Amino acid sequence: MSPFDDPTTLERFADLVVGFAVNLQPDQVLAVGAEIGKEDLARALATSGYRHGARFVDVTYFDMHVKKARIQHAREDTLPFVPSWYGERLLELGAQRCARIGLTGPAHPGLLDDLDPQRLSHDQLPALKEGGQIVNERTTNWTAVPCPTRAWAELVHPELDPDAAWARLGEEIVHICRLDEADPVAAWKARQATLVGAAARLTERRLEALRFRGEGTDLIVGLLPTSQWMAAMFSTVDGIAHMPNLPSEEVFTAPDPLRVDGVVRSTKPLVVGGSIVRGLEVEFRGGRAVRIDATENADIVRGYAERDPGAGRLGEVALVDGDGRIGALDTVFFDTLLDENAASHIALGEAYNFTAGDADQSRLNRSIIHVDFMIGGPGVDVDGVTVEGDVVPVLQDGAWRL
User: Fold this and answer.
1) Please, are residues 316 and 347 in contact by the beta-carbon 8 Å criterion?
2) CATH code where residue 16 lies
3) Which of 278, 287, 296, 374 is the one with CA 20 to 30 A from 336?
């Protein structure tokens, strides 16, 4: 039996997400985005939302089977098309200062595996380009959280029978979301204090660049003069504190999109557009990805990197220490929300405005995509390069060295 078969676990999780992570305010509209197959948690979140004083809870479901039908049968030139009201709805959520919750984790893993990767790269739904805009404008308090499903459990734990896999995934999510603590909110606040402190020290050092070194990886990522390191505790323009990812174990900032050089190998599979990319290796020159290879589905990442001029450059670099709960499990979740918080990572595409000062806003990378992939973990060390050219250890064997 999974913990998520117990209505009490669903209620506690929903209350943690609504009351703490998204920090719903009385009389706010709450938007919940889910896939077909995630109804139980979506309903629990809606119930919690109304208990916390929501004016209205708007739950929308995306159907991956409909997406598959589009990839299979629609004219290729129509695949990038997104109806205007999709983006307009998202922008209106910002204009009305709503709260947003997104549910991650595959409900139908493998559904798109037999499709043409090139056609898949053209259709990025349910992701929307307006998502980056409202995040940068900080008009909504939002969060993304994992939603366990039986199909996802069998993908993560194929060595177990289906019931055991379902139980194991549920136990892991309870643990990494700190629901196994008597006071999960207090546990998260303590972890956030550690990460905020690490971010402050990194910002104070004003490093010129970071260097990642490990098997198959030797990458230098330049930083901007005003790169601002952050942990996952944000505030809206109206002062509502919220945690954009639950769980979150990272500190992150904006790199210089023109100064990234070397080769980097992904240390975990990643899921892009519903497909699993394995064995990813990317070579950068002068900030641009000039070679993208993978053992599986390289064409999907190549297609994303060609969407616009900024899609082949970096918009984020993030560091993850060894004290988080996700990496210690040594489980590949095939879900970016969880896997990116198990290991240091970089992201192709859009940068966050609030990760650099006013003087460098024009230098931030711009794109309609934001694709994270994991490059850290055991055996990958991170050093800093100072303005004077000195090399200082930053993260080694999972421990902060600042």
Assistant:
1) yes
2) 3.40.1830.10
3) 287
- Residue 20 pLDDT greater than 90, yes or no: yes
Tell me whether residue 191 is in a domain: no
Q: Are residues 11 and 120 in the same domain?
A: yes
Token code pair at residue 210? 């970071």
At residue 370's C-alpha, the angle toward residues 381 and 373, to 5°, is: 30
Same domain? For 50 and 117 the reply is yes
Residue 361 corresponds to which tokens in the numbers above?
Answer: 């806003």
Q: What is the pTM of this model?
A: 0.87
Query: CA 380 to CA 319: how far, in whole Å?
Result: 11
Q: 17: which DSSP letter?
A: I
The answer on 217 and 85 residing in a single domain is no
CA 29 to each of CA 34, 127, 228: distance values in angstroms, whole numbers, following the listed order? 16, 21, 31
Whether residue 173 lies inside any domain: the answer is yes
pLDDT in tens, 328-351: 898 989 998 898 899 899 999 999
> What domain range includes position 150?
3-184
Same-domain pairing of 179 and 274: no
What digits encode the pLDDT tens for the residues 22-72? 999 999 999 999 999 999 999 999 999 999 999 999 999 999 999 999 999
Residue at 259 is within a domain? yes
At 176 the pLDDT is 96
Residue 264 phi/psi, 5° resolution? -135, 140
User: What does the alpha-carbon distance between residue 112 and residue 100 come to, in Å, rounded to a whole number?
Assistant: 27
**Cα dihedral angle (141, 31, 147, 87), rounded to 10 degrees?**
-90
Answer yes or no: is 75 within a domain.
Answer: yes
Q: Which residue blocks in 61-220 are alpha helix, DSSP H?
A: 64-73, 84-95, 117-122, 130-137, 150-156, 162-176, 184-205
Number of separate domains in the chain: 2
Q: Which of 381, 296, 367 is nearest to 124 (CA)?
A: 367
Residue ranges with strand state E in 85-225: 99-104, 141-146, 209-214, 217-223
Half-sphere exposure of 126 (CA within 13 A, CB side): 16
- 102 and 14 housed in the same domain: yes
For residue 19, give the DSSP letter: I
Distance of CA 276 to the CA centre of its chain: 15
